[in-house]
Amino acid sequence: MSMDHDEIAKKCWQTGSKAFNAENWDYAVEMFMKSVQFRPDNLAYRQSLRGAEYRKYNQNKKGAGMMAKTKLMGIRGKVSKHKGKGEWDAVDHACEEGLYLNPWDPQLNADAAESCMRRGYEEVGKFLMEAAVQADPDSIKFNTLLANLLEEKGEYKNAAAIWRRIQKLDPQAFEARTKIMHLESMRTIDDGGYEIATSTKDVAHLPDHEVARRLGRNQKKTDEVDGPGQSEEHDILNAIRKEPNNKDLYLKLGDFYRRLDRFDDAIEYYTKADEKAGGNVNIKEFIEDMQLAKLGAEVKSFKNEAIQNPKDEELTAFANKKAEELLDREISVYSTRVKRYPADMRLKFELARRYRHKAMWAEAIPLLQAASNDQRLEVEALVALGKCFIQDNRPPMALRQFKKALPNLRHDDKPEVFKEVHYYVGRIEEKAGNKSAAEDSYSEILAHDYNYKDVRARLERLQGGGG
User: How far apart, in whole angstroms, are the C-alpha atoms of residue 402 and residue 388?
Assistant: First the structure.
């Protein structure tokens, strides 16, 4: 009986591990490469391969060097050709062929990461993209790709940290500032902060001491230290005592507290920095960001407690009140920033998303129309725009947006969005009496998910099968 791919990959990896322990790097690389070819989605196999390749070249950070330059040029051509055709298995194979010659090559690591993400191998994709950034840490391009990948995986805190690195590399990168703010709020939104109950009417008010008790706001005191270098916080406070008018020191301490989610302390020192600076738009935005983050943490805390105490109607009502307060505050802040940075399409998209939460379709639509002109946001904005038009009872306009989105929407990339959009199109076409078009949309869904919603019944009815 022949072994399946899993068994072959495991055997190759075990053989490679023995060669690795014996410091036979060439044979270890050969075996690990085979295990990766049989199981490209296995993170441990990919890590083992890269580790053996690093040692094969004695950690020289350049691989085979100039001797491999001509071969690498040809391999890059193959990668580009396969990417253009969407042949992601072939892209991965070609990238690994090149990484055999130079495992530190940032572009090949990035291309391999994309090929893995396209096929749903998220952890391997993350590992490869991190390798690209490690090889070229000052590259805004690779850092941006990693930040976006982490955001897609829902690792909002880690993604925000990468955007802060980008901000240091390019202080004029407006997108970095917007992304950081967006990701901080996403940590709350992803936890369902806006959806605690079905109604926010007749909310109750909890006394301040009860709010403090439930949030557990008491913060730890600064640890006692014996001397400089043992506490970053203590060192910055000492520096402030020596230079009380240096705004940068207050900013530095504010950043320190922000990283620890000590919102009140961060707000206090950002405010002091703003006072020393005589008023500064960027610092004021830091203060706003911390105020939003603090309110978001409160929403999350009350939501969690409301879930744990479903019979506490007063708590549930108050949690909903705080969620509405957060949403209104974000709309206020984002509206001001959209006016301040009119070319920032991500900011417009985020403001539109919040308007949609409040069913303010007329306000959301023009923002989404503008955001759809940004290639990075085009599909997401068009889908959101179509949903707005449906809610605003304009099906023909919705249909137009969905059809614009479909050519760039692949099931392999975004399966749920792909099916959802085809379902909307099918429903609109069916209601309009366009039987053939509706059948096409429903059939497209069934080709990927035979049990999606009521699609089978609708298709059978259109084809004369009853139901």
Answer: 11
Which residue type is seen at 378?
A: E
Residues 35, 205: Cα–Cα separation, whole Å: 61
Distance CA 178, CA 349 (A): 11
Cα atoms in the 13 Å half-sphere on the side-chain side of 345: 13
Model-level pTM?
0.58
Cα dihedral across residues 445, 447, 449, 454: positive or negative:
positive
Residues 215, 298: Cα–Cα separation, whole Å: 7
Burial of 189 (0-12, 13-18, 19+ CB in 10 A): buried
Helical H segments across 119-262, by residue range: 122-135, 140-152, 156-169, 174-189, 208-215, 232-242, 247-259
- The owner of tokens 């391969």 is 49
Torsion 64-67-73-78 (CA) sign: negative
Contact 191, 300 (CB under 8 A): yes
CA distances from 186 to 104, 152, 354 (A): 33, 12, 12
Cα torsion angle, 333, 335, 337, 339, sign: negative
DSSP code of 374? S
Rounded to whole angstroms, the Cα distance separating 252 from 265 reads 12
How many CB atoms neighbour CB 51 within 10 A?
Answer: 16
Any idea what DSSP says for residue 173?
-
Length of the chain: 467
User: What kind of fold does domain 202-215+231-341 have according to CATH?
Assistant: 1.25.40
Query: Identity (one letter) of the amino acid at 177?
Result: R
Percent of the chain topping pLDDT 70? 87
Mean pLDDT throughout 407-423? 89
E strand or H helix at 338: helix 313-340
Number of H helices, E strands in the chain: 23, 0
Nearest to residue 348, comparing CAs of 325, 318, 381?
381
pLDDT band, very low/low/confident/very high, at 3 (cuts 50, 70, 90): low
- At 464, is the secondary structure helix, strand, or coil? coil
Nearest one of 255, 88, 93 to 164, comparing CA atoms = 255
- Give Cβ neighbours of residue 457 (< 8 Å, ≥ 6 apart): 467
Q: For the stretch 297-312, what's the b/e string if a residue is b when 16 or more beta carbons lie within 10 angstroms of its beta carbon?
A: bbbbbbbebbeeeeee
With tokens 């379902």, the residue in question is 423
Q: With left for phi above 0 and alpha for psi between -120 and 50, is residue 40 left, alpha or beta? A: alpha
What are 380-405's pLDDT values in tens digits? 999 999 999 999 999 999 999 999 99
